[in-house]
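Hey, I'm writing a tutorial for new members on how sequence and structure tokens pair up, and I'd like a real worked example in the thread rather than a made-up one. If someone can provide the structure for the chain below, I'll link this post from the tutorial.
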Amino acid sequence: MSETPEPMHQEPSAEVPIPIGEPLAWPLLDQNGTLLVRAGSIIASEEERRFLVEHFSFYTGAARPITSAHPSSGDARGEPITLAQMRLSIGSPIGMRSFFAATSPMRRSRVIGFSPDRSLFVTAPRVGKLPLVLSVGENVQAVAIGAHAVYSFSCTILATCDQPFHYFVLSEPGAVRSLRERKAARVHTRLAVRYTSAGSDGELQGLGLGRDLSVQGMSLLSPHPIGEIGSNVHVSFPISTAQLDTQFEAVAVVRNMKHSGAADGLVAYGLEFESVSGDQQFALRSFLFDCLSANSL
């Protein structure tokens, strides 16, 4: 059992669409999922583009702009989405339910491993304090948060185990479709967000409305200035799920700002998280999964 699924192999070639002189509409990742060039960066010349193509093998799902907001059963060329393209990782949250209980709520589980034949090892979902009862050969519906999208798929229970704890072995995901075709799953929220930033008149503090939250950032509406584009701001808001109760803390960069035009005079700031600890990322992903489960499943 390995820790990550093997990405699809892709030879370096000019087929990777890297525009010159304009912001990238998507991030460039290598075959191991390592970020090479951030979305929005500009490749200034043909020489730079050629250097990237010649020295890196790009992950197949990373170098393609996302153009549709509608669910899809494959990529832009109509090819099926694979387990490698989903880019699940150890600890990725998964919601599951039996095909025979299509109206019941999704039960929370987590990825604990992958096998060479692309089977999934997941913790047994719970109903209250007891594990969800599923039988070998039973088909299940599932939804999971990948690196750049939220996916729904179907699996078959290959094995149920109770040692050293309750877990399931699932077949390779089939009929995979993207519920959120964007580089970061974003959910509509209304959060009371405390912010602190440095201004020309000293430290600025206040309370704003947090909306459109993702693992990469959020929109923060404030009645007062919080900073200029490019400046840093510290944000904090509570996260409470069935599994954890914590205070989310992060340093973010102001990427854009826009006056709402409404009578309330609020200004919307687009924030990109820059400094987030591993524990905070886990808490944020858990919170987003709960929100997506409530809104989309």
